[in-house]
Amino acid sequence: MNPATFQFLAGIVKQRSGGVLTADQGYMLDTRLAPLLKREGMASLDALAMRLRSPGADKLAQEMTELLTTNESHFFRDGKPFDHLKELLPVLHKARAPGMPIRIWSAACSTGQEAYSIAIILAEAQEFGPPDLKARRFEIIGTDLTTAVLDRAKEAVFTQFEVQRGLPVRQLMKHFTQTDSRWRAKDHLRGYTKFQQANLLTDLRGFGKFDVIFCRNVLIYFDMPTKSRVLGGLAGQLAPDGALYLGAAETALGITDRLEPILGQRAVYRPASAEPVRARA
Ligand SMILES: C[S@@+](CC[C@H](N)C(=O)[O-])C[C@H]1O[C@@H](n2cnc3c(N)ncnc32)[C@H](O)[C@@H]1O
User: Fold this and answer.
1) pLDDT per position in the chain (281 positions), as tens?
2) Cα–Cα distance between 80 and 130 in angstroms, integer?
3) Considering only CA atoms, which of 181, 114, 164 is closest in space to residue 142?
4) Measured between alpha carbons, how far is 76 from 268 in angstroms, rounded to an integer?
């Protein structure tokens, strides 16, 4: 591929998703875009670049961008955020008026394992919790840039390999139904969730305020100004006593002053202007 072609394609991806592609990822473009080239009858990425330079190529540019996102995910990824959420739920429940739903956002949810892991936490908290917690309404909104992964998240069907990654057998048997070698989340889990396309680079205030936000393993693909912008936006949508969970390799420190870490926790933040932090066990 011509180096100018790489720069051009990487520029489109950066502009549309925030993801930064480096020159050593040229191979990734070759492999991931091969089916697109075949479908479009194009001989090379140079030909694709030429098509994208002509007017009316918006849909193709979006399709290419989505194909170049990394959608790796698994159930209960990193463990700790979900343990923290279990402790936070009763606190939020107590702080909210009875009729108010508790809203949780899985931003960059990929194929839905994060959203369904959260749903399991909620289902078990409601099953074993006090009656007023049983009556509480919860909403999990999963969003992602990539439509193909959202379709899978909505379907809620996972392969044997996927459920074996992080989902304890007890919870698999309890919350999923098996058909051949696939497992589908049961109605009670799916009932908590809604999935919708949304780009983190855009103004997402229309989604309203959230009590909890998971935005994990997507900031790693962004440059500093993009991280700062996205984190600032998330801070604005987080309740003052809510929590934002980032990925294990991600931080908000030194990137935005709109968030502060929750003491004693790794990669868990709250809006910066909130009351003094009380450490949780
Ligand atoms: C590695 S997955 C993370 C999935 C899940 N949060 C987890 O930690 O397991 C990253 C996801 O971010 C999505 N993504 C990338 N850029 C995005 C953007 N600008 N807006 C929304 N989602 C984006 C990708 O489509 C991909 O599904």
Assistant:
1) 788 999 999 999 999 999 999 989 988 999 999 999 999 999 999 999 999 999 999 999 999 999 999 999 999 999 999 999 999 999 999 999 999 999 999 999 999 999 999 999 999 999 988 888 999 999 999 999 999 999 999 999 999 999 999 999 999 999 999 998 999 999 999 999 999 999 999 999 999 999 999 999 999 999 999 999 999 999 999 999 999 999 999 999 999 999 999 988 889 999 997 555 554 54
2) 24
3) 114
4) 15
CATH number of the domain within which 61 lies: 1.10.155
pTM surpassing 0.90?
Answer: yes
CA 146–ligand 1 middle distance (angstroms): 8
Q: Specify the number of domains making up the chain.
A: 2
CATH at residue 160: 3.40.50.150
Residue 278 lies in a domain: no
CA of 99 to the centre of ligand 1 (A): 32
Cα–Cα distance measured from residue 45 to residue 278, given in angstroms and rounded to the nearest whole number = 54
**Domain extent at residue 150:** 80-271
Distance 108 CA to ligand 1 centre (A): 4
105 forms beta bridges with 141, 213
Ligand 1, CB within 6 Å, residue ranges: 17-19, 69-73, 77, 108-110, 114, 144-146, 149, 199-201, 216-218, 247
Distance 186 CA to ligand 1 centre (A): 24
Six token digits for residue 76: 């209960």
Evaluate whether residue 72 is within a structural domain. Answer: no
Residue 73, domain member (yes or no): no
C-alpha span between 176 and 163 (Å, rounded): 10
Residue after which a domain boundary falls, among 14, 38, 67:
67
